[in-house]
Amino acid sequence: MTAELLDRNMGSHITYTFNGIDNSFQRFYVSFKVCVDGFLYGCRPLISLDACHLKSKYLGVFLSANSVDGNNGLFTIAFAVIEAESKHSWSWFLKNMVESIGSNLSTLSFISNMEKGLGEAIREIYPEAEHRICIRHLWKNIKKNFDVNMGKKCKDLSGQLQMPILM
Predict the structure, then answer these.
(1) Strands 109-112 and 130-133
(2) Cα–Cα distance between 96 and 133 in angstroms, integer?
(3) Fewest beta carbons less than 10 Å away: which of 19, 79, 100, 152?
(4) pLDDT in tens, 31-69
């Protein structure tokens, strides 16, 4: 399957691994060349990293790296399916992204929920990049852990403190 994808999408970065004990599927990563080129030449240098837990016959976690294009549309750069969300799996994903888009992007910024080792992985793999927490995820965590009225005040205050992103 990898050979066919690479034949039809030359220059793409596709990799997968299997469990060394029972040879079962562990994870795969895909970044199509056209998506990388689109990001490098037509998108803002801001990457949103997110994970979505798969709840079907085949469990796992879907990772994605997205940016914003010139029309303010969502632009996928890379995606992966992994066994579980952890610092190790995020590091693996980001190392593959380095192979796809490079690491010497001086103005690169990340936005994420900073959970399950992601913040550490970004600092390790992209040490020069800016990294900020997604306000939606922050608000969700505040609501979960604090009184809703207090959470709303915090959300309003944090919105006033945010600096605009200039691109």
Answers:
(1) parallel
(2) 22
(3) 19
(4) 999 999 999 999 989 999 999 999 988 889 999 999 999
Query: Domain spans of the chain?
Result: 2-132, 134-167
Give the separation between CA 125 and CA 123, rounded to whole angstroms.
Answer: 6
Q: Three-state SS for 143?
A: helix
Contact 89, 116 (CB under 8 A): no
Q: Which two tokens stand for residue 100?
A: 């796809």
Of 88-92, 100-104, 143-147, 158-162, which has the strongest mean pLDDT? 88-92
Question: What are the pLDDT digits (tens) for 81-99?
Answer: 999 999 999 999 999 999 9
